[in-house]
Amino acid sequence: MSDEKYKVVFKGDVSDKVSVFDARKNFAAIFQADKKTLDKMFSGTRIALQRNTDLKTCREYVKKLEKSGILCVIEPEEEEEGVEKMKEKKPQEKKARSKKAKALKRRSNEISKLELLLLTLFLGWTGAHKFYLKKYIQGALCLIFIWTLIPLAVSLFEFIFHLCTSQKRLREKYQHKGSFEAVMVVAFLGSMFVIITATIAMSADANDITTSIKEAIDSIYILIYKIENFREKVKDTFKKHKPDPKEEGRGGGSGEILRVGPESLRYKHSIIYA
Fold first, then answer.
1. Tens digit of pLDDT for each residue in 160-186?
2. Which end of the chain has fewer CB atoms < 10 Å from its terminal CB, N or C?
3. How far are the Cα atoms of 15, 24, 215, 231 from residue 218, in angstroms, in the given order?
4. Which 8-state DSSP code applies to residue 222?
């Protein structure tokens, strides 16, 4: 029995012989407590004032506090059992926390079909969706050959393929997604390439574009002029070979029509298409 340890517990109870105000004053004098500590002590919460003490010492301590109007109780010390329970709980809690952390990490690394579709549709020409799927070599090739527009055509086919594939199948095929930072860097490089190319083309080829437009307009005018000349030539040819009504009565006025032979028709054809 001498090995047993006890503790003195205060629950906020005071003696009937003193008021709560006097009890708080006495408590502050004994424990040198401030107002905040007194409020906590007299809130009704179980607070151990003394721990790991033998029964005799605890009884003397309680009697001393009773004289000041503070009522306390003696309880067996269960700290060792509590420590053992805490030791048992800690590994379990650590395992639960590690499992939860792994699940969250795995969920954060899973492929999202919506993200993949958006990247393939809007940034597929830069190869950003390849970096999202951790296909870094294919993504680099898309970025290198971006000027050929081949990555754009391939990304359109891949968008249709991903659209027709379920999210479960996508996660089975692509277990982990790439870093978001790499995707953003690729998208930035692709956008800068397009902006720089468009700027150079607009500044360098502005005069060439104007010249090409002028040449096209001149070609149209030349074509119209040639068509008009051809039409006039056809009209003149028909006028030359049209039969004269005065010559129709030749041959004694019998009213015979002058017939044109094959040789004259051949000559007329050669004039028209000369």
1. 999 999 888 888 888 777 777 888 888
2. N
3. 116, 108, 5, 20
4. H
Contact 33, 23 (CB under 8 A): no
* Order of strands across the sheet that contains 47-53: 47-53, 6-14, 70-76
Number of C-alpha atoms within 13 angstroms, CB side, residue 58?
21
C-alpha angle 147-149-170 in degrees, rounded to nearest 5? 120
- pLDDT per residue as tens digits for the range 85-140: 555 566 777 777 777 777 666 777 788 889 889 999 998 888 888 888 888 888 88
- Reference 123, options 70, 194, 54; nearest CA is 194
Residue found under tokens 């708080």: 24
How far is C-alpha 138 from the geometric centre of its chain's CA atoms? Answer: 20
